Amino acid sequence: MNDIQITFLGTGASIPPPNRFQSSIAIRHKGGLFIFDVGEGAQYNLRKFKVPLRKEITIAISHAHADHYQGLGGLLASFNLLDRKEKVTIIGPPKFEEILKLLLTALQVQVSYPLVFVPMNPGDTFKGNGYSLTAIKALHFNNSLSFRWQEDPYPGKWDTTLLEKYKVPNKDRKQLKLGNSITVEDGTVIRPEDIIGPEREGRSIVYSGDTKYNPSLIKFAHKCDVLIHEATYPSDDIEQGQKREHSTVREAAMVGRLAKADITLLTHIGTQILNFKKEKEMLKSITKALFTFDGFVFKIPYEKVGKNLQPQ
Ligand SMILES: [Zn+2]
Ligand SMILES: [Zn+2]
């Protein structure tokens, strides 16, 4: 219960290898459905992998390369057919708003529900329901973003032994919750910090979008629960990666290692990666990292709450 569930809907690069659609990642959390990028095939895989739509849907587009939004027009059109009434929020680089308008015009889609566009620049924060989304500049073409999805903090845990010892009545518990001290029957004064533990950090997911090796991303992803990093090129193809502003498998894993991410999940897999066995061997020596595939599911359990620190 209350797990955060990440479903990879598309894990291929712009020319997707067989069995991989283009970039799209769905996150189910208690507040709703959040989607990073909507590449070609995302809608198909939402259904195939049984990701239910929610009243609250928020979509973040990392950048305006077609492989990251080719599925968006179709998805927004389908919401019409499904008679959706609830708002859909789309977050993206400011210039994406124009593309979105053109897309809907070209497809002749008139949405029957409120569609809200939220422009996002590096350094901006979007406040969602139970989480916040922040962005930094990705080292890719202009206006490309990397995102951090950060669950809101949870209140501290109560010391149940003390609660019982002093038989704290409900009305006094409320006062403690509000930050006020109380005096119990035997005259002892209890301050909130005596009985309520420190606030616990929520869970976090960092998504690189498309980027070449980015030292700033290491700091941004510090101690995240999950780093989702693009890995377009084989580890020995650094030159191509630099030239085309993408990462190799090894570079992606190094970001995960240096950021101390609990796990690094590799996506945006290019057709040039052929020897997966060799790459997997290499990954073992660097960090806990996995190649994802369409339909790959990763859960962040509730137990992870309070385990990690905010980025420094
Ligand atoms: Zn891409
Ligand atoms: Zn791109």
Based on the model shown, name its key terms.
binds zinc ion, alpha/beta, seven-stranded mixed beta sheet, 16 strands, Metallo-beta-lactamase, Chain A, single chain, 312 residues
Superfamily at the CATH H level of the largest domain? Ribonuclease Z/Hydroxyacylglutathione hydrolase-like
Low-confidence stretches: none
- Kindly report the spatial arrangement of strands forming the biggest sheet: 6-5-4-3-2-1-16
Mean pLDDT: 94
Number of domain modules:
2
Q: What portion of residues is helical? A: 25-40%
The appropriate CATH architecture of the largest domain is 4-Layer Sandwich
Tell me the structural class: alpha/beta
Structure description:
25% of the residues lie in helices and 24% in strands. With 312 residues, the protein is α/β, with parallel strands linked by helices. It folds into two domains: 4-154 and 203-304, Ribonuclease Z/Hydroxyacylglutathione hydrolase-like (Metallo-beta-lactamase, Chain A, 4-Layer Sandwich), CATH 3.60.15.10; 160-195, no CATH class. It has a seven-stranded mixed beta sheet. α10 links the parallel β14 and β15. The model has no long low-confidence stretch (mean pLDDT 94).
Task: Draw up the topology in text.
Elements (H helix, E strand, L loop, with lengths): L3 E7 L13 E6 L2 E7 L3 H7 L8 E4 L11 H10 L6 E5 L3 H11 L8 E5 L5 E3 L3 E7 L7 E7 L8 H6 L4 H8 L4 E2 L5 E2 L1 H4 L8 E4 L7 H6 L5 E5 L7 H7 L4 H11 L3 E5 L8 H9 L4 E3 L5 E4 L12
Parallel strand pairs: 3-4, 4-5, 5-6, 12-13, 13-14, 14-15
Antiparallel strand pairs: 1-2, 1-16, 2-3, 7-8, 8-9, 9-12, 10-11
The chain binds zinc ion (ZN) (2 copies).
